[in-house]
Amino acid sequence: MTTRRGLTQGLMATAAALAGGRSAFATPDYPTKQVKVIAPFAPGAATDTCARIVAQRLGERWGKPVIVENKVGASGSIGAAAVAQAAPDGHTLLLGTIGTSATNAHLMPNMPYDTLNDFTPISLFATVAMLVVVHPSQPIHSIAELIAYAQKNPGRLNCGTAGIGSSPHLAALLFESLAKVRFEHVAYAGVAPMIPDILQNRVNVSLGDASSFLPHVRSGALRAIGVTTATRFEGLPDVPTVAEAGVKGYEASAWYGVLGPAKLLPAVVAKLSGDVAAIARMPEVKQQLAPLAATTVGSTSDEFAVFIRAEYDRWGKLIRDSGVQVKKPS
Question: pLDDT value at position 110?
Answer without folding.
Answer: 87
